[in-house]
Amino acid sequence: MTQSTDLGPEDRKIVTLARSARARNAVPEGAAVRDETGRTYVAGTVALTSLGLSALRTAVAMAVASGAESLEAAAVVSASADLPPEDLAAVRDLGGENTPVYLAAPDGELRRTLTAH
Question: For 4-115, which CATH class?
């Protein structure tokens, strides 16, 4: 497994932000995305009776709502070892097929890097 410290500083930052969102809000997932200008958007899982969104889809929605035109990278911190196809589709819709999605364990250890294709 690759440690998140093996990432560049900007990618390490979004893993750290995702990890913090998960812990701070006591939710199953934390996510962070970085847009084309370097702005970051951080979110946790949304689990309301009337609305359920993964942390990654919430972070992508926040980026879109703030005027982001594309994504450079995304990170998800979760106990799960995989992401649903809908999460990758949301990243692909805004970031394109080659946008890296870093999937990390709750301790910040990078499990794998996915692309949105």
Answer: alpha beta
- Specify whether the CB–CB gap between 49 and 61 falls below 8 A: no
Other CB atoms within a 10 A radius of the CB of residue 52 amount to 10
Is residue 41 within 8 A of residue 71, CB to CB? The reply is: no
Domain ranges, ordered by start, for the chain:
4-115
Q: pTM for this structure?
A: 0.92
Confidence of residue 37 (pLDDT cuts 50, 70, 90): very high
**DSSP letter for each residue of 2-41:** B-GGGS-HHHHHHHHHHHHHHHHHT-SEEEEEEETTS-EE
3-class secondary structure, 109: coil
- How large a percentage of the chain has pLDDT more than 90? 87
Question: What 3-state class would DSSP assign to 73?
Answer: strand
Contact between 114 and 101 under an 8 Å Cβ cutoff? The reply is yes
